[in-house]
Write a structure and sequence with these properties.
This protein has seven helices and 25 strands. It is α+β, with helices and mostly antiparallel strands. The protein is 21% helix and 34% strand.
Length: 364
């Protein structure tokens, strides 16, 4: 009786529809205006151990002269010959709602012919946005996790010594305007435009906040802030972005020919098709022999060419791939071919050309 009850319970669980945990709205969409902004600046790294830019790179010396003049030191450009300075480009990402004093990570990349910037110190560098306004200032020691040493006869290099990072090396000096001030309507922009996903997001929001969401295309959802949350927009957004939805995924097969990597979505299907795949191997080997006359015989020693030619062709018969309705069926059907991943890429391309692959084939 006990075994019968367990069997009935298993059958009941198998009959139930599979439940997939949805993703939060904040993971599949973002609010219009709440976006990152790229910053860039030109700076100098000092303190290098003779591995900086050479005299052939003119602009680091000019930048050094200008910096010294701003500090009240007057020098002649022709008198400066240093190898412990390198010109660099400094980049950073300004996140939304960043406040004055917020620390940002910066990336530092050499502009000239410096051998390495490891161990150097970045001098105060303004970081500007696309509007040419300064939003942050960077300074600090550069960490490259690399080294580059060598002489005239040999050299040793590890990782990439001409680019590095300064963790928390920039301070925000200018704040971005608030995107929530005075707004009664918000817009959610989907990370991947899809009509089904936009419809599901609209339904999830309207189920939680009656009739506040509307979608006119597959890339965005418009949300009206309810009257009771007009003075508390942050609280409303916090509840909204934690609602869960199931993101729809297109049927897609992604292949990487360089590495032989194949990734398939769970909606990929293959119609019934016959496949034959064989390889032709041709081997040519030159093994010359030496023909030498007998002792005291009148003759010449000659080299006689000899070529060994082998041709091998795999004799594989046609394999029938049945209709595949699930990703498991697709994998089992393709495994019947018994080929390597690189050969499987060619087979998938041929199946797609035959119209039997019910998915988008993306080659990267």
């Amino acid at each position: 009786m006990k075994n019968r009850s367990i069997l009935l319970l298993i059958l009941l669980l198998l009959c139930l529809p599979s439940l997939s945990q949805g993703a939060r709205i904040k993971d599949v969409a973002s609010f219009d205006g709440a976006r990152d902004n790229q910053l860039v600046g030109y700076g100098l790294i000092v303190g290098l151990n003779g591995s900086g830019d050479s005299d052939q790179t003119k602009f680091p010396v000019q930048s050094l002269v200008n910096m010294l003049e701003r500090m009240g030191v007057t020098v002649n450009r022709n008198d400066i010959k240093v190898k412990n300075v390198a010109a660099v480009m400094v980049t950073a990402t300004l996140p939304p709602f960043a406040k004055q004093g917020t620390k940002l990570d910066v990336l530092v990349s050499s502009l000239g012919d410096a051998k390495t910037i490891a161990g150097g110190t970045l001098i105060m560098t303004p970081l500007k946005g696309a509007d040419n306004h300064v939003y942050a200032v960077a300074q600090g020691s550069v960490l490259t996790n690399s080294f580059a040493f060598g002489g005239q006869g040999a050299a040793a290099t590890k990782n990439h010594p001409t680019a590095g990072r300064i963790t928390g090396g920039a301070l925000v000096e200018r704040e971005l305007p608030s995107v929530l001030a005075g707004r009664t309507v918000l817009r959610l922009n989907l990370a991947q435009s899809d009509f089904t996903t936009a419809s599901r997001i609209t339904k999830a929001i309207n189920d939680r906040f009656s009739g506040v969401a509307d979608s006119s295309d597959g890339g965005s959802v418009t949300v009206q802030i309810p009257q009771e949350y007009l003075q508390r927009p942050v609280e409303f957004i916090a509840q909204l972005e934690n609602l869960e939805v199931t993101q729809d995924q297109p049927a897609r097969v992604v292949v990487n020919e360089r590495t032989g990597t194949i990734v398939m979505g769970d909606r990929v299907k293959i119609s019934s098709v016959a496949v034959s795949h064989g390889n032709l191997a041709l081997t040519v080997k030159e093994t010359p022999k030496v023909s030498q006359p007998n002792p005291l015989a009148a003759g010449e020693t000659k080299e006689v060419p000899r070529t060994d030619l082998k041709v091998a062709e795999e004799t594989k018969r046609l394999s029938v791939l049945p209709d595949s309705n699930t990703i498991g069926d697709v994998v089992r059907g393709l495994n019947l071919l018994g080929v390597t991943p690189r050969d499987l890429i060619s087979i998938l391309q041929a199946i797609k050309a035959a119209g039997a692959l019910q998915a988008e084939l993306v080659i990267i």
